[in-house]
Predict the 3D structure of the following.
Amino acid sequence: MTFVLMAGSAFGQKNWTNVIVNGDLEGTAPAYETLDAVSADAWNSFWVHEWPGDQSVRYDGTANVVEDPADPSNHCVKVVIRSRAEGEAAGNLTKDYTGNDGTYGSWDCQFFIYATQPIPQGKEIRLQLKVKADREGSFETQNHSVPGTYIDANAFGNPKYTTEWTTLKLDPITVTESQETSGYQSIAFNLCTDEDANVIYFDDIKLQIRDPQEGGDDAGAWINFMRKGIYSDDHITGTSPNEGDWECSNFTIQTPEQTKAPVVEVPGEPGVMAVHVPVKGYVIREIEDLDEEGNQQFDDDGNVKMKNVYYWNNGDSIGTSAPARWTCQFFVSTLHKMVKGEKFRFKFRCKADKPTNLGTQAHYGPGKYKDYNTFGDESAFPIDADWKTFELGDFESVEDASKHVIPSGANGCQTITFDCVPLEGEDNNFYLIVDEFSFTEKYVTIGDRTLGTPETIGLAVNLDDDEKANTIDMSNMLNTFEEADFSFLKNGKDGIKLYTLLEPDDPEDDPIESFSGLLNWTDGGFVGKDGLYIDDENGISIRLDDSSIDGAKINVMVWNNPDAGISFANGETVNTKLAISQSGWYYVYNVILSADGTGIRDIQMTKNDGKIYDLMGRRVNNPTKGIYIQNGKKFFVK
């Protein structure tokens, strides 16, 4: 077994270079009236095309920097968005890309980030910023050379914003050859995504680039996220830039009846289990083409007009077009968010009652579409009544080395989607067995490997090294790993390990995960007042007693070195993370260190005192929306 101190974020990687200045919008803003070359004192990193303004150009000038309405000590960009009605009343809607007047498009009002240099092909770019507005909405993103000179659309998706400051960390992209040829240097935000007026604010903007982090021989071992094959059932969550949060398990399906993915015994093959995707057939019926009032219509020859209408075999109406291939889908999702250019392996077996095809898409999560034909079109996956094995990614059977890595269309996604093409007139049944969905250790974060829902516990910190122990009930952890006891402690793949949490280059980023060496049980390790691991004794010692195992419980000794200078007076706490590892997979505890161990564990033992606590163990007098604990039980405030 491995104990780990950890924090998780893939956004804290090093080697990023910032290519804008004054991202926090503080200081004095010089007046720029033309789009000159960006200088060291470049407030022209931010430009707007805003109403009221000159509608004959794609940009108007430098952004309007104002005081934050909620915090006069903070400055931000303010952009006024007019409604369609206002634009039509003014008679000066923006010109479209062909030069025609009168278009109210999402580009009617734009905000631009202008980099300090053109960004060459192959560079990875990431964007982070804070956004809020007078009302909720979303914006589009585009790639431009200079502000207003369009290259292509959907740069970073269509992020949503609210009326509160929200930090958006958008999935990185990689610059293409055509973008470099166009002189890629700017990102545009199209703000008129509906017809209503709004005011939107931007702050703390970071546009950063780095050389691509390609997978290779040094990418580490393969991590297969299908640990239990078709019985894998991780709880997976994520966010789609367009459609918000989502959650799922490893295997889900979408059919006309919207059922979950069942695992069944394959008919005629005793003992062979597979995921079953039932696909309805469809029929075409010719019916009279009535007008809007229900009256019969005739053609020029006096014949009754007819039209084709499509129905599923169960009688449900489809419409006037045949069902699309993506009407019935099989989704395979993982805890890992795919990164363009990283190596991957995906291996599955498939058969169907009747010959047909599979197509592929990349989704953020099931149903959260991003890309089409990402891993092959229908011709790549012909299916019939015999089992066929398909290998995608870094397999010898895939001769094209460019297909050994994640394509750009799947960047930021966690789901490979298979379109199970429906047949005219016949129901069909697909059976799929997913053997492998693997990535290399180089890209797999601790969070990707964390199983179950993190628990929050409170541990009492001793003021001297008197071996006083905290007892942790690890029943949930054992159930998650499906271990009846701690017998896997002697597994040679596991040991006592700590994750060193390194300070990131940017203080606003999360700590960087870095694996440290093996530790003996009673040696433990030390954390400082910030909860980060330190390599000396000037901190809080955390160690385990390997002789204290009692069923599903284990003892942890925690004491504060008197010379560490860490105080727990007046209810002060130190928060850290503790994780157990089994063969490279983790179970996490959010740990609150305090003088009396005040935390979720102690609250659960408190009987009917009527006090209310949050999930970090802090007393709450007036709970707002969220989950809380009272008298040892959780409750939800809407």
